[in-house]
Amino acid sequence: MTMDVSNLTVTKAVESLSENAVRSVDLVQALIGRIRERDPVLGAYVDLNEADALEQAAVADTRRAQGGAGRLLGVPLAIKDVLNVRGQSCRCGSRILEGYVSPYDATVVARLRAEGAVLLGRTNMDEFAMGSSTENSALKVTRNPANTAHVPGGSSGGSAAAVAGGIALASLGSDTGGSIRQPAAFCGCVGLKPTYGRVSRYGLVAFASSLDQVGPLTRNVRDAALLLGIIAGRDPADATTADVPVPDYAAGFTDSLKGVRLGLPREYFVDGMDPDVEGRVREAVAVCRGLGAEIVPVSLPHTEYAIATYYIIATAEASANLARYDGVRYGFRADGAEDSLDLYVRTRAQGFGPEVKRRIILGTYVLSSGYYDAYYLSAQKVRTLIRGDFDAAFQQCDAILAPVTPTPAYRFGERTGDPLSMYLSDIFTATINLAGICALSVPCGLTGGGLPVGLQVIGPAFGESAILRVGHAYERSRDGKAGA
Amino acid sequence: MWKTTPAIILPVGVACKLFLSDGDGIRYVEAVAAGRKGEEMQAERRQTGHVDVAYVARLARLGLTADEVQTFQSQLEQIVGYVRKIGELDLSRVEPTLFSQSIQNVFRDDVARPGLDRAPVLSNAPATVGEQFSVPRIVE
Fold first, then answer.
1. Å from B14 to nearest chain A CA?
2. CB burial class (10 A; 0-12, 13-18, 19+) of residue B95?
3. A261 interfaces chain B, CB cutoff of 8 Å
4. Which of A356, A382, A445, B19 is the most buried (most CB within 10 A)?
């Protein structure tokens, strides 16, 4: 049978598959058909593994027929091109990883496989996850499904465009300063950045190691809860993963928010914000109040220092992480080098795009002799103050409500000439990575121009259950399903 | 013509070869390591937020064209001018946060485990000889 996959959730797919109402092979075929139709416009996928996906689907169908189980048995998923999938390419939107084939699975990918997921293809991104619009990809242009003249956000722009554009049921992305939540908000899907240490980074190509986290982009909050429950947990291959139990994240879902205290930080409602974005977010806050939540004012006084702190720490760590791309062990190598140093210099000159070069230079600069204390060490201290802000705020509330971005998705080329203005738009998201806590982006309506707006639900470390519960109750009420 | 010395930090007065971006490519020059004058200049630059893009690119083993140096110069000085904002804060009594979770000393049993298969790893390399990565000659 054929089925409409453009609005299908993971939860619904699992249900249909387990009732034998549909086979995985049919699901994958229907999805491939949709992708062929729609992706020439959206440009969400950088690599589609049709034959391999159909084979994985057939294996899943056989397993099911033989009584095999798996929480995602036969469910096709898309993966951001920053995660290693054994036997597939992993380009990270860069020329420098040309020809690279992953010799192993990232832990999150292995966990999806173990539950029977079908890995359909990989999605476009800003080069090495550096960017907020996916315009920094060296591979292709990805467009916002809500309006193709606008960027999808970034860096997980391909993942968000695929999910919101009806050509992926769900996908995995990575978030260093907002790279899951911002494109989710721009395109109109759900995006979750877990607490630092909640999800293994083994097999995730490193950008900024103290900030990076892998998380899901989905069509609803329940799917985000399901996928987080699968990818989360301690991993011996990543010593920064926390030994904290992984609960059933959907167990506490209700339609009511009675007894929940939600903080509203005054620093996140500022002059210069798009009035439609502020309007939609304030309406969402009112909806949560209507569901029984108590809204309390909170303050995060060091917010104004967050972007400066973020761009020091993230670029410093990136400059060290990206030192490995030298044309020796994998990927692209420049021709004509006469000695090793020349090989590194030429390979990196030709292999990296402008934004990556800019960040390598900034990161090298803030770490260089004589500048380390003034920039990198100071930024690490400001980070302590930013964490302190959140610790104090969470004394007064269970979760914080805020916008995800100050503006809706902008047009192509609008900000490429001015990197600083692009960086400043990360203000509501990068702060959360610095504090190492978790946050969820949930669609909360459209601007007058028809562009999606995201509501951000921020929680304390390992507070994913709380923010997913809030997001779920809000989403149900928004869709008029409360009590249904 | 492309001979070089990768040294960056040298005693005062010692001559070295450096590579610089020039027009469409990279050229090498002979230079003498600066002493106090360099330190003074650095202190001054720290005050003004000046970024010596060509010098930092050398530290990062990153070749840049003259156009890139020029573009990055103004963009990075604007960005550095902005991030210097954190200097407004009194941080004298604040401890740095290196990682947001306080996990320390993660141990595992010292047991050998298989690594990645050699063939798929080597097949990713741009050049190999037998079971080794191949690079340009280092020792003459």
1. 19
2. exposed
3. no
4. A356
Domain that holds residue B61: 1-87
Q: What is the pTM of this model?
A: 0.92
Residue among A344, A358, A435 whose CB faces B100 most closely? A435
Q: Along chain A (484 residues), what's the average pLDDT of each consecutive run of 10 residues?
A: 84 97 97 97 96 97 96 98 96 96 97 97 98 96 98 98 98 98 98 98 97 98 98 96 96 96 94 92 98 98 96 97 96 93 96 97 94 94 97 98 97 90 91 98 97 98 98 93 48
Domain total for chain A?
Answer: 2
Same domain, A91 and A20: yes
Assigned domain for B20 exists? yes
| Cβ–Cβ < 8 Å for A468, A221 | yes
A240 with B125: Cβ contact below 8 A:
no
CB B100 to CB A387 under 8 A? yes
**At which of A338, A373, A408 does a domain end?**
A373
Q: Which residue has the tokens 């260089």?
A: A368
Q: In the beta sheet, which residues pair with residue A176?
A: none
Q: Are A337 and A408 contained in the same domain? A: no
Looking at this predicted complex, what is its ipTM?
Answer: 0.89
* A242 in contact with B, Cβ within 8 Å: yes
> Looking at the domain assignment, is residue B19 inside a domain?
yes
Say if B109 falls within a structural domain: no
Q: DSSP state, A268? A: G
Q: Do A361 and A288 belong together in one domain?
A: no
CA end-to-end span of chain B? 15
Residue pair B5/B17 in contact by the 8 Å Cβ criterion: yes
Cβ distance B121 to A103 less than 8 Å, yes or no, reads yes
